[in-house]
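Researcher: Let's do a round of design. I'm pasting the structure tokens now; please hold your answer until I've finished.
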């Protein structure tokens, strides 16, 4: 009676994906309700993205397997309308299992904060390329966020119908429909555990392993040389940041910063960068927001008037593209940060553009403000720069 049961691979994928989807929905509700001050909220969102993309990949594998392996026929005695509902529900699941993670991926791709995605902190995942031309990124992000949530609720609705039908077939009809998909062999249980174990291992590795920039930046110290061979044109240069408030992006700028740059593309080992920023010079164009920036809960300018980034670990990543890894100090907090940038040198002049993604709570910014949740202040901050300089040596 083998033809009355699904194949072992189909059974393993079915139950592994089902468990992952339930975990994603439960985790999504949990992390959404966490306060922005939570130290794990950012990591949970990153893992949510990783598991969502994993479900998308597994769904394509499951769909491909179904196309080449015919599923068992529905019972002959089942009414036609029930067969139609079963087929619609089944294909509806496939559609939602593809569209829901795609909506999440699209949401990340248009987000004004432009936080990169790395599968379990290791494998870079690019943004969806066809969304590059989106202009109103904040509005698009809000729309896709709502779409993502509606699709997830659609999965819950279909899941309730699916479970109800399975119980009916098992208890009332006793026609073997549920038994055809229940794991009954060692290899089926092993397949389910293998999928879940592999992805769980990725999550554990993500949580216990420092981010790539931390490992790469282990050599960066405050002893980086400050002898500069490039003079910065501060009138033409810019140091800016992008944050999020009430689901809308806002931009700000530091008007007072100093950069000591010793850079030679032919001798990166001897190159270094030191940037000192007057944190009290930050402004966003909003008087209420700007009045809180110097406060103790944020930059605490009275006791910590400057922030500093020091890097002596610089490497080329492509033509005119570089990474500078070093320590960023804000108040009494230090974190290793990797700054990516493009450098164009034309004779004695140079233009460098780039930036880095930061999590504000890693630097003690806005840890204890009770109004953060009401104002929906985002955890992620994008810092960008445009540096114009002239060779001085």
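Researcher: That's everything. Go ahead.
Model: Designed sequence:
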């Amino acid at each position: 009676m083998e033809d009355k049961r699904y194949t072992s691979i189909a059974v393993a994928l079915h139950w592994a994906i089902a468990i992952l989807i339930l975990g994603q929905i439960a985790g999504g509700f949990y992390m959404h309700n966490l306060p922005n001050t939570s130290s794990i909220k950012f990591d949970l969102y990153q893992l949510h993205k990783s598991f969502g993309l994993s479900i998308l990949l597994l769904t394509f594998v499951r769909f491909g397997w179904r196309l080449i392996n015919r599923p068992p026929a529905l019972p002959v005695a089942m009414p036609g309308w029930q067969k139609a509902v079963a087929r619609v529900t089944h294909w509806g699941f496939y559609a939602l299992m593809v569209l829901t993670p795609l909506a999440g991926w699209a949401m990340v791709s248009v987000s004004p904060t432009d936080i990169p995605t790395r599968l379990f902190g290791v494998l870079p995942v690019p943004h969806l390329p066809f969304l590059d031309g989106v202009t109103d990124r904040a509005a698009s992000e809000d729309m896709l966020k709502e779409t993502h949530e509606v699709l997830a609720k659609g999965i819950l609705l279909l899941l309730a119908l699916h479970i109800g039908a399975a119980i009916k077939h098992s208890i009332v009809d006793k026609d073997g429909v549920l038994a055809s998909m229940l794991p009954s062999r060692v290899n089926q249980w092993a397949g389910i555990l293998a999928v879940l174990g592999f992805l769980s291992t990725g999550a554990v590795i993500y949580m216990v392993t420092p981010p790539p920039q931390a490992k790469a930046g282990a050599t960066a110290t405050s002893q980086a040389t400050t002898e500069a061979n490039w003079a910065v044109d501060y009138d033409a240069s810019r140091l800016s940041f992008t944050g999020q408030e009430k689901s809308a992006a806002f931009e700000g700028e530091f008007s007072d910063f100093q950069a000591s740059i010793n850079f030679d593309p032919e001798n990166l080992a001897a190159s270094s960068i030191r940037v000192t920023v007057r944190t009290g010079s930050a402004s966003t164009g909003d008087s209420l927001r700007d009045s809180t920036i110097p406060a103790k809960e944020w930059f605490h300018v009275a006791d910590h008037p400057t922030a500093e980034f020091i890097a002596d670990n610089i490497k080329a990543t492509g033509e005119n593209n570089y990474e500078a890894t070093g320590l960023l100090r804000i108040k009494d907090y230090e974190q290793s940060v990797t700054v990516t940038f493009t450098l164009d040198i034309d004779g004695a002049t140079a233009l460098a553009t780039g930036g880095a993604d930061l999590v504000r709570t890693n630097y003690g910014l806005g840890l204890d403000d009770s109004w953060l949740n009401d104002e929906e202040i985002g955890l992620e901050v994008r810092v960008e720069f445009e540096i114009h300089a002239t060779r001085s040596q």
